[in-house]
Amino acid sequence: MSALRDAAMKSKAWPFEEARAILKRYEKAPPEKGYVLFETGYGPSGLPHIGTFGEVARTTMIRRAFEVISDIPTRLICFSDDVDGMRKVPENVPQQDMLREHMQKPLTSVPDPYGEYDSFGHHNNAMLRRFLDTFGFEYDFISATDFYKSGRFDETLLRCAERYDAIMAIMLKSLREERQQTYSAFLPIHPETGRVLYVPMKHVDAARGEITFDDETGREWTLPVTGGHVKLQWKPDFGARWAALGVDFEMYGKDHSTNTPIYDGICEVLGGRKPNHMTYELFLDDQGQKISKSKGNGLTIDEWLTYAATESLSYFMYQKPKTAKRMHFDVIPRAVDEYHQQLRAYPDQDVDAQVNNPVWHIHGGQPPVSKMVVPFSMLLNLASVAGAKDAKGLWGYIRAYAPEASPETHPDLDAAAGFAVRYFADKIAPHRVFRAPTEQERAAMLDLRARLVKLADVTAAEFENIPTNRDELLSADGLQSMVFAVGKDHGFEPLRDWFKALYEVLLGASEGPRFGGFIALYGVAETIALIDKGLAGDFVTV
Fold first, then answer.
1. Cis peptide before 191 (omega within 30 of 0)
2. So what's the pLDDT on residue 467?
3. Which of 247, 358, 429, 441 lies in disulfide reach of 242, CB 3.0 to 4.6 Å?
4. 162 lies in some domain
5. Domain total of the chain
6. 143 and 79 in a common domain
7. Taking the chain, what is the end-to-end CA distance rounded to the nearest angstrom?
8. Selection from 287, 247, 248, 243 nearest residue 266 by Cα
């Protein structure tokens, strides 16, 4: 453990850098509450999306890193702000008209449009928890509805009433003049309509812990700030929650970064210690727009898991969290293959390199052994030419390429084969565009065909006097060298134009795997037949 801790203390991996910063909070004395508290917040205004998962995944990576460098216990809370009033109806859920009848009500008071849970908030919370449980995250879930109504938040809410002027001073500095006139840190929940009201306060009675206000009809009401009768505006709620729970770390998206001084200031006004925070860049859809829960753009959680295993998503989340990244279907194959590349590298690395390997952080220091003897990108191309309907349709080729592999001994490969068939059918096949070869490309492909025919017909005896044996020539590297040589001999410059031609003529795509590896997997005879069809124009539709 000492070697691991030593490596962790000097690691440049971002989870360890954040963990060391958290450790500095308690270099003089351990936390009075007995543990370091990590928190991630969730606004259940729409169906959970991958960005939500990313916060929990990344926070968990930092938590695990902290546990390596410190013996202080840790805890992770996933907090859902489900008292938030529904300000707009998400575009990607049913019963839009019904939902519009419940505008401004707390999400846990809005009926579930799916008819499965007590409320829309409960539905979205359940979806979030189901997904987090799928990944095996260790966390405690807190519903803001329960937090406000159970009395757990009462002490802090009473302190908010007591220090209301100080909270308002922080908030008013950040608001435009016209907004200042009507702003209140407290949002009452109307006793009759159940709606969250955005109205100014007529009086805040710190001694009694009550607020007085006029509703939208001009009727005056007085409500206690405790017991779920009132909620805090979302910015004060951030800081008040930190103070109430003693949060030590929370990360959030770049769009929150300008609010950090507000969150911190309110936390400190309420007697808390501001937590460490980390700001990450936002995820973008295929059009470069920010992913939004309410719009439902970008990838959903379930969509990613339709085409790849969960670990690939964790790998995507690990990469460069402070850089904006497109999150669309086309990022999945690369994420899968890079994840397995890192897995294969891990066993041969020393401990310094291992703690900088993404798979250490994805698996909490216990990464599995990769059995992906065929890259996912290669499986996609195999699916495109094999006409397979499921993973079984690819296993004949896989066994010929890797005789030691089977669905039983290589379950990750078997799962990937099924994902590849599905991904190809849904995301590649509808968009394939084949073309006829140019004269230069036709000549090169005929040359490649001739070399493959010769290689297929040669017996092992004919290679007795040649240094490189037949098995080496038929290997992925040997075949790649052959394809490379053909391109050079036919004057392709740059050489990638030759490989692009093979992909476009034979596979209907502009990009693909190492073509030598594809031949080794698909088979020499099968590739010869594929070239014949491509040259005959069988794939080109008029």
1. no
2. 42
3. 247
4. yes
5. 3
6. yes
7. 65
8. 243
Q: Where are the alpha helices (DSSP H) in 11-143?
A: 14-25, 50-69, 96-100, 120-134
Residues near 197 by beta carbon (within 8 Å), at least 6 away in sequence: 104, 187, 188, 189, 190, 213, 215, 216
Q: For residues 428 and 509, what is the distance between their CA atoms, to the nearest angstrom?
A: 9
> Is residue 498's pLDDT more than 90?
yes
Same domain, 436 and 426: no
Domain-located, residue 183: no
pLDDT in tens, 516-526: 999 999 999 99
Indicate the burial class of 263 (C-beta count within 10 angstroms; 0-12, 13-18, 19 or more): buried
The residue among 65, 80, 39 whose CA lies nearest residue 277 is 39
The reply to whether 436 falls in a domain is yes
- Phi–psi pair at 208, nearest 5 degrees: -95, -10
Question: Do residues 478 and 510 both lie within one domain?
Answer: yes
State the pLDDT at residue 496. Answer: 94
Q: Does residue 223 lie in a domain region? A: no
Question: Are 116 and 258 in a shared domain?
Answer: yes
Range of the domain at 58: 2-172+230-284
Model pTM?
A: 0.89
Kindly report the backbone phi and psi dihedral angles of residue 116, in degrees, each rounded to the nearest multiple of 5, phi listed first: -110, -25
Residue 278 φ/ψ, nearest 5 degrees: -135, 130
Which pLDDT does position 460 carry in this prediction? 45
- Over residues 23-40, the pLDDT tens digits come to 999 999 999 999 999 999
CATH number, position 109: 3.40.50.620
Neighbours of 360 (CB within 10 A): 30
Which residue matches tokens 């449009």? 113
